[in-house]
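Hi, here's the filled form for the chain we discussed.

Project: internal
Contact: R.S.
Residues: 224
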Amino acid sequence: MSYIRSNIDYFLEKHRTNPNDLEQKNPRIKQSTLFRIQSGATKDPRRSTLEPFAEWAGVSVSDLFEKDFRQLSKDLAFDNNVDLSKPISFEGRPVPVISWVAAGSFSGIETILRDAEVDEFLPPIKECGKNGYGLVVTGFSMSPKFEPEDRIYVNPDFQVIDLKTGDLVIVACLGDTEATFKQLVIEGSTMYLQPLNPKWDEKVIKLSEGCRLVGKVVGLYRKI
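And the returned structure, exactly as it came back:
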């Protein structure tokens, strides 16, 4: 039995970090490698790709596969640096960042996440749900709250009936090549979109018959 997936989760929890932040601090450790293992996409990773992670964790690559460090920490007090009486919250899995074209696709999000070539991941937040994804903000229509190069968390598993005026949403329309990010306004049975930027020329964007809500924006990640 391989413990690689459990052990990666364990050491990330132990050091209170995530794949995205870890790669920024140690570029040899690739967040894409860790995410594919954590998500189950890679079930039998090459041991050579895990050498940087093993060095950082202070164990051998073989031990990563063969030892259950989570159980060892309980049985042998292996973890001397963490108060086990205070569990660390580590909700969900790292969130993949996809393209705006993929976000506006009519394919199911499960298919997109499975087939997409993902090069960036965001720290997990529980609001994103099991199929959540990230997008890189482009343009200034949502400034100043959201600036270009900001990352936004999107939950595609929302109920349209639960949406309300002021919610931030991702919308795709027939004929468009990608999705758009705007604030939702509901007036009776009518819904339309508006930018947050008061200087933006197009103040109201009507939702045509071919438009569909593909996600609710539930968080912001900004690199400083």
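Let me know if anything looks off before we file it.
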